[in-house]
Write a structure and sequence with these properties.
Layout: E1 2-5, E2 16-19, E3 29-39, H1 41-48, H2 54-57, E4 75-83, E5 95-99, E6 107-111, E7 115-117, H3 124-128, E8 138-139, H4 144-149, E9 156-157, E10 170-175, H5 182-187, E11 189-197, H6 211-221, E12 228-230, H7 238-250, E13 257-262, H8 266-275, E14 281-285
Parallel strand pairs: 8-9, 10-11, 11-12, 13-14
Antiparallel strand pairs: 1-2, 3-4, 3-6, 3-14, 4-5, 5-7
Length: 286
């Protein structure tokens, strides 16, 4: 089968489309024929091996000179092509969405606990945009109308306003970027508020510590400066994926696609993620 692979850390230039062996579903797994897969910041973090300290902290994902899993990709949507032993509730022909590893490929063997049924109202491309994605209400000028249309009641245009320098305060601040100081973030928290730190950074910047530095400072010094810091560890979960799919089916949330690429141009999709400010999810179709 065709897949987007890499053998060493680097920019999207290290990626290539190659022929690899098609996986077989093990016990508790299904084989999914991938229809679409989206790319995320997590993909370039692994692709580049950044921040470099992560190579020491998570040896399950990061090898010495390249990722342990050669095939990139996490979010996906597709059709079950085969079912392994001990799988319950799934059968060949079911259409699914989910989150796992090695999904920028024609097929992926996926644990059944990482799956949810694809809503009929969503295309495969829209379904593939759902699992790992999240949208905050801080954006640039060109995205203000889009973010408002998605349901944000208050939008901050970071090109015109520094959200940490206003008189407003919030019970919860969710930081998915990780480029502001702990002091800045504390300034906008209401008394007793909670700061949630999850990922962030930009390709090529903060190559050694990146957002991990902020998380470490938050964990070590948060209480000393009066900040309740929470650092979640997200794990693919069938129940949460199903809730997410149901919300999309009802129209409570709406996936937004920026651009789609064919699998043959998947490296260009990753380059788009690295270089451009996408207005929605970038999706690769097979």
């Amino acid at each position: 089968m065709k897949a987007l692979v890499q053998d060493m850390y680097g920019t999207s230039e290290v990626l290539r489309l190659d022929d690899v062996e098609q996986p077989e579903p093990a016990a508790g797994e299904v084989l999914v024929r991938i229809a679409a897969a989206s790319v995320n910041a997590a993909d370039w973090h692994v692709m580049r091996g950044e921040p470099k300290i992560a190579r020491l902290m998570d040896r399950r994902i990061f090898g010495r000179t390249g990722p342990r899993e050669r095939i990139r990709g996490r979010d996906f949507a597709g059709t079950i092509d085969a079912v392994g032993p001990d799988v319950t509730g799934w059968r060949v022909g079911d259409t699914v969405l989910g989150e796992d590893e090695a999904t920028l490929a024609e097929y992926a063997a996926v644990p059944q606990g990482c799956l949810a049924r694809k809503p009929e109202a969503l295309s495969f491309e829209e379904a593939a945009a759902l699992p790992l994605a999240a949208v905050t209400a801080v954006c640039s000028t060109r995205n203000v109308d889009l973010v408002t249309s998605l349901g944000a009641t208050e939008v901050v245009d970071y090109t015109r306003e520094d959200f940490t320098s206003t008189a407003r305060s919030y019970d919860v601040v969710l930081d998915l970027v990780g480029t502001r100081s702990l002091r800045d973030l504390r300034r906008v928290l209401a008394p007793g508020g909670r700061l949630v730190l999850s990922g962030g950074g930009n390709p090529g910047h903060g190559r050694y510590l990146g957002p991990i530095g902020l998380m470490a400072r938050g964990g070590l010094f948060g209480r000393l400066v009066g900040v309740r810091v929470h650092i979640p560890r997200a794990t693919p979960n069938a129940e949460r994926l199903t809730d997410l799919a149901d919300m999309a089916a009802r129209g409570d949330i709406r996936p937004v696609l920026d651009r789609t690429y064919p699998l043959a141009d998947a490296a260009a999709a990753m380059r788009h993620l690295e270089v451009d400010h996408a207005r929605g999810k970038i999706v690769v179709t097979t």
